[in-house]
Amino acid sequence: MAGAVGRPRRSAPRRSGKNPREEILDASAELFTRQGFATTSTHQIADAVGIRQASLYYHFPSKTEIFLTLLKSTVEPSTVLAEDLNSLDAGPELRLWAIVAAEVRLLLSTKWNVGRLYQLPIAASEEFAEYHAQRDALTAVFRDLAAEIIGDDPRVELPFHITMSAIEMRRNDGTVPSPLGDSIPDTAIMLADASLAVLGAKLPEDRVEKTLNLIKQADAK
């Protein structure tokens, strides 16, 4: 009797993830952040997961698509939250604090420092125009909220850069600095506070609790 036809399966998963797609992203994140995009092959990714190279293409059509998926994962959740902030009956101080804290929380919630992938030369390629559009839109949210507080001032650029400093502060050793949960990491609170301080803005009351409520609303969508 002929053997079963289909993608070969492992006896046990080698990577963290609920399914093969997540395992591929986990292996790719490690390889991309540790050795770069150009020097990482799909064969290496497949081997790190424990699947055949052909099986990898069942989940992702190319290495570029894997990279794009990881890039987008660093901005999409905060983009959703930014849309919710537009309809929030709150001052710009709270809205800016919330978006800074939420983005830092996201950057600290992964095993590998995927936030740093945008610094790789390949990320500037036109192949990743979709990601650049999303990142530019998110950057504009930070800038516009800061402008609501201090008007036409060069400091409006600072909150986003302060937020991105989280990727320079965290490790890249496969350990999650701050797993997602019902709290805001201390680092996120610190950088969100700093983003308002550099603008000379007063810290909103109950900013942590209100931000957590906003995040829960965005996650429920």
TrEMBL record:
- Position of the signal peptide: none
List keywords of the entry alphabetically: DNA-binding, Transcription, Transcription regulation
Q: Where is this region: Disordered?
A: 1-20
Q: Which portions of the chain have biased composition (kind: Basic residues)?
A: 7-18
Q: Where is the HTH tetR-type domain?
A: 18-78
| Gene3D superfamilies assigned to the protein according to its UniProt record, in alphabetical order | Tetracycline Repressor, domain 2
Q: Which InterPro entries match?
A: Homeodomain-like_sf, HTH-type_TetR-like_transc_reg, HTH_TetR
GO: which molecular function terms? Answer: DNA-binding transcription factor activity; transcription cis-regulatory region binding
Question: DNA binding happens at which residues?
Answer: 41-60
Q: What is this protein called?
A: Transcription regulator AmtR
| Organism whose genome encodes this protein | Corynebacterium callunae DSM 20147
